[in-house]
Amino acid sequence: MLPDIVEIKNGVYFTGAFDPKIRTFDIIMKTANGSSYNSYVVRGSEGVAVMDTVKKEFSDDFFARLERVCTYDEIRYIVLHHLEPDHSGALIELMKRAPEARLIISGRAVMMLKGIIKTDIPYEIATTGKIISLGDKTIEFLMTPFLHWPDTMSSYLHEEKLLFSGDVFGSHYYDERLFDDEVGDFMYAFQYYYDHIMRPFKQHVLNALELYRKFDINIIAPLHGPILRTNPMGYIDKYASWSSQSKFRKNELGMKMLSVFYISSYDNTHKMAEKVTQGADSVAGIRASMYDLASLDEHNMITLLEESDAILIGSPTINGDAVRPAWDLLSCMAYLESIGKIGATFGSYGWTGEAPEMLHERLRGLKFRVPLKPLKIKLIPTEEELDGCVVFGREIAEIAMGKMIEMELV
Question: Less crowded by CB within 10 Å, the N or C end of the chain?
Fold first, then answer.
């Protein structure tokens, strides 16, 4: 059975593929509703442009749709907005079938292209403002790097006021009705996609939005999920709001935020956490909070990490390692910027006590400032040792407030 052909605007067709059964994307993302690999064809009076391909395993669907809207000798351009395999998987075969087509990529995609194709093929480099013509259709390119790969670009079809956004404004949400006003409620997937894919690159998002706002956009065609034709500027405004939120909540509360995260097996690290928090909260301008990692889910972890100016992590040492919830917390930093944040670690131990040092090194690797050596206490802390925890918390809070120290561990 031949796939349905959907014309999304005058002379613009959907040629992508659907993946309803996928449940995990790029290892880290859950896809409860499946996903799609969106590809489009722009037909002009003087030829055709193919805007991205699909994941290799879905090439048959892609070519079946493509062949229903054009012949291969009509294809003048193949545009790859970025080269992740789920969008370039059918490229090699497409270039074999359309050998006269000119491949257009961003400058940052060149090395990636060679890594994917494993051979030299001709290509043209797009830059912001570069235009290609299909006669009565005009496509202008916009460089939007790090959304979410370094090579990402977008393009704008002037005559139809259509933005091919790349991964930006995408969502992992399968629904063959395609359009945002016809599919099911996908807004949870839209924000989930932003949080896990675009959130680490907020400044790059804002830079891209500045480019987009120069154009009159009536429809957004992303590389995953529904095509956005109902109030497209509303989706742009959502991205602007999410990306413009204050880096830390100090602007909202007038204080710097210090978060103490801990996990405790015999209450000893918990006691340390309480005293560390007490010491930090005694510093003017600091709002200190304490969180048990045994009860935090990932979404709350991400939010708290993003809001915090300083992050302290406490873990006991079990089997020569920090416990998993502490590592899960740090894995959430993959979604966030850590530049400017201060980190410190602590914990109780019975034998060897490696956990605080291991967490300390990971914070360094994540580009945190880690000005204090890890604080370790063997087994049950004494009153004197708990007093030391108060001092530890107070000192890290003072550093967060701008106190200079003689030497910072880097």
Answer: N
